[in-house]
UniProtKB/TrEMBL annotation:
Protein name in UniProt: NAD(P)H-dependent oxidoreductase
Keyword Flavoprotein set for record: yes
UniProt KW keywords: Flavoprotein, FMN
PANTHER family in the record: NAD(P)H-DEPENDENT FMN-CONTAINING OXIDOREDUCTASE YWQN-RELATED
Amino acid sequence: MARSFLFLLGSSRTGGNTEALARLAAEQLPTGTEQQWLRLTELPLPDFDDLRHDGEEHYPAATGNAGRLLEATLSATDLVIASPLYWYSVSTPVKRYLDHWSGWMRIPGVGFRPRMAGRTLWGVTALATADPSVAEPLAGTLRHTAVYMKMNWGGVLLGHGNRPGDVTSDEDATARAKTFFS
Ligand SMILES: Cc1cc2nc3c(=O)[nH]c(=O)nc-3n(C[C@H](O)[C@H](O)[C@H](O)COP(=O)(O)O)c2cc1C
């Protein structure tokens, strides 16, 4: 099956370090590899409503931005969550998107969970702190999500930077970006 990458940009600003690092890594994908880039702030989702135990296990069909994101997610073999480190974890738009997976798993006829199994989940992040261990909650969130969904775990590409553009001076990160997806 031909690989198809979905990059979900989770920063609350455009042109930031996480996106720059993700684009550097994506440059190394083999020519012709399908890539789709979506900015979560341009496709805002409502707060997630947990209906699981209201006597109704079924969720309504995803429409609007949710429908667009669900379709893009299901069409990718490789899902790249590009989230800056916010309070040691993923950004709010990313967290809200992941919360919606709980509903998507329960939309009749979609088969979200079995269809996501076997795909690969990747993370890309930028953080201001020099100590990369502070990003463990973000890495753990994504890694455990992959395990729960029976997805393959690709790992996290982590770069250091605070102001936009800083990450391009992180030599370890830019070197790692070159082989991250290979
Ligand atoms: C709301 C918020 C929370 C942040 N929390 C952290 C944090 O917990 N640890 C850290 O090292 N940097 C933190 N930062 C700094 C960002 O991770 C850093 O500026 C990063 O480069 C932003 O990525 P971006 O340029 O892709 O938006 C935070 C920034 C914001 C705006």
